[in-house]
Design goal:
Structural class: mainly alpha
Oligomer: single chain
Helix content: over 70%
Number of helices: 5
Order of helices and strands: HHHHEEH
């Protein structure tokens, strides 16, 4: 029985054609999802189950990831405009 990490990398290889067919922005979101799965490899102790719903679920997750990335970029842009960094005002703004 392969470890979760090996199974995850095998799954990534299986999805490689899907990944290559994506537009570059979608590829970035896909890679982000795969990297998030890798971050939690220690906690994941169950084998990957392969079934036809994976395609649908992965597509939904990909769109969610893109939305989250867009929201983060917008929030980061608003912080720059308002002079905030990590929710902290600059000292001159805090005094005034």
């Amino acid at each position: 029985m392969p470890t979760y990490r090996l199974a995850l990398e095998a799954m990534a290889q299986q999805w490689n054609e899907f990944r290559r067919a994506l537009r570059s922005g979608d590829r970035e979101a896909f890679d982000s999802l795969m990297n998030r799965a890798r971050l939690h490899a220690s906690a994941a102790t169950y084998a990957i189950s392969l079934d036809p719903t994976e395609s649908a679920l992965l597509s939904m997750l990909l769109e969610h990831e893109k939305e989250l990335m867009d929201m983060k970029k917008k929030l980061d842009g608003e912080k720059d405009v308002n002079g905030e960094q990590d929710g902290v005002l600059r000292s001159s703004e805090a005094e005034g």
